[in-house]
Amino acid sequence: MSDAPRPCDTHPDIVEFKYPLPRLAQSLKSQRKVKIVAIGSSSTAGEGNIVPFPCRLELALRGQFHGRMIDVLNRGIGGQEALDELSRFDPDVIGEAPALVIWQVGTNAVFRLGQYSFDDVAASIATGLDRIAGFGMDVVLMDLQYTTAIVGPDKIKAAEQMVSLISAAAEKANINVFRRFALMRRWCCGDGIPIAELIDPTDPDKLHMSDWATNCVTQALYGAIAAALRATA
Asked: Which CATH number is 25's domain given?
């Protein structure tokens, strides 16, 4: 039996961005130092021994753009939702003046169903996007992970509703969505990967992604960013 890691299919057709990334493209062209902020909850901050996506994305971008000092600042705090994250936008996002903001939202509203009003989450996302728009930053919204804690029988309808709310907010603001939920669902429902392989085996809540899933999601995100930069150029 082979011990080789499972191949990673990033399904570019699912995660492809709709809009270019002009601010990031210009920064990479004209500046030596390029800053990206990733804000969100534990999917961003990291959980357990799994290296989170901001660190992996930083390495991928540095490997591609030699000679650039690219920093992906991790501004994730576990357990937070859009309402909580909005309250720290000034120091954690706007104050950093990044070329790109990756905002991971929606997971805790579903995981802790009933604790957050979906209307309040949607309103906070819209408010946050409006505030960022005034500073000319590129923005990507990252939606939910497809794990047992999110897609169980008691959560799946709420998860799909939240994914739709995030997509609608992005469409209204003319910014990109990284469709993590659809990508991971494709792995399970189309590629035949057991959902257990997408979950951190040490996580009793079955909420957080495994090392393989985190790595493959990051590859997909990097691919979407790189394709958008090529389209921008």
From this structure: 3.40.50.1110
Decide if 4 is inside a domain: no
- Strand extents, DSSP E, 77-162: 100-104, 138-142
Instruction: Examine residue 18 and state whether it is found in any structural domain, yes or no.
Output: yes
Segment (H or E) for 70: strand 69-76
Model pLDDT, residue 210: 97
pLDDT tens, position by position, 57-97: 999 999 999 889 999 999 999 999 999 999 999 999 999 99
Residue 166 domain-assigned (yes or no): yes
pLDDT digits (tens, 9 = 90+) for 121-142: 999 999 999 999 989 899 999 9
Q: Which own/partner pairs from 67-71 qualify as long-range (CB within 8 Å, at least 24 positions apart)? A: 67/32, 68/28, 68/31, 68/32, 68/33, 68/34, 69/32, 69/33, 69/34, 70/34, 70/35, 70/36, 71/33, 71/34, 71/35, 71/36
**Longest CA span, the chain:** 55
Domain count, the chain: 1
98 pLDDT above the threshold of 70: yes
- Smallest CA-to-CA distance from 106 within 44, 163, 25, 185 is with 163
